[in-house]
Amino acid sequence: MIVSKITLFFIRHSRRLFEVFCNKGVAGSSSAELLATFCDNILKKGGSEKLSDEAIEETLEKVVKLLAYISNKDLFTEFYRKKLAQRLLFDKSANDDHERSILTKLKQQCGGQFTSKMEGMKKYKYELDNKDSTHKLVEVASNLSIHRVPGVALFYTELVHGISPIFTHYVNVPALHLVLVFVSFKYPTISTVLPEKRFLFGRIEHYELGIFRCILRYVYKDSRFE
């Protein structure tokens, strides 16, 4: 019994010491920033060419486990998002599978809210790279071989310009609803949005085609249940 108590005390004390160690900054950089930078070095082109896929996955697994000891996870998220944005924007990501893998691991460890914006960035990049033109949309909607059936179809997309590639997959079925609405949520960097500017609704091309775009604008002070 005494041995068990000593062992438990040792484990708890060791954990506290390890947490203190993990949260110490180095040369003016916080541990959260250093961990995000390490992830960036692993995931960007040229950063892990000598490592096998298995070694990279094992390393990412260890990173996520280490994150559990970092007290300021929000700071890690901020740095990670910035570096992810740079990898996506400048096409520096070495492997999409590894990018998805670490997001999955982070989601399992910290929850969906922790990774929602990162996943949104990945989705936006995919849609941006594979988007269809408005001309293509009109061409499909005007095709007489495609039946227009009663109802409304909503397509969620990160794009506010161009057409999400999900639409192309949708029209594999030779039928379209009479009304098509492409919906996007945007979060402007302002404190409030006037009620009359909450929903931006507009028609895409000809009215008779029944194709619209709706942009919902929310900011941090807004209630989602208005």
From TrEMBL:
<dbReference type="Pfam" id="PF00888">
    <property type="entry name" value="Cullin"/>
</dbReference>
<dbReference type="Pfam" id="PF22776">
    <property type="entry name" value="K_trans_C"/>
</dbReference>
<dbReference type="GO" id="GO:0031625">
    <property type="term" value="F:ubiquitin protein ligase binding"/>
</dbReference>
<comment type="similarity">
    <text>Belongs to the cullin family.</text>
</comment>
<dbReference type="GO" id="GO:0006511">
    <property type="term" value="P:ubiquitin-dependent protein catabolic process"/>
</dbReference>
<protein>
    <recommendedName>
        <fullName>Cullin family profile domain-containing protein</fullName>
    </recommendedName>
</protein>
<feature type="domain" description="Cullin family profile">
    <location>
        <begin position="30"/>
        <end position="121"/>
    </location>
</feature>
<dbReference type="InterPro" id="IPR001373">
    <property type="entry name" value="Cullin_N"/>
</dbReference>
<dbReference type="InterPro" id="IPR016158">
    <property type="entry name" value="Cullin_homology"/>
</dbReference>
<dbReference type="InterPro" id="IPR045093">
    <property type="entry name" value="Cullin"/>
</dbReference>
<dbReference type="InterPro" id="IPR036317">
    <property type="entry name" value="Cullin_homology_sf"/>
</dbReference>
<dbReference type="InterPro" id="IPR053952">
    <property type="entry name" value="K_trans_C"/>
</dbReference>
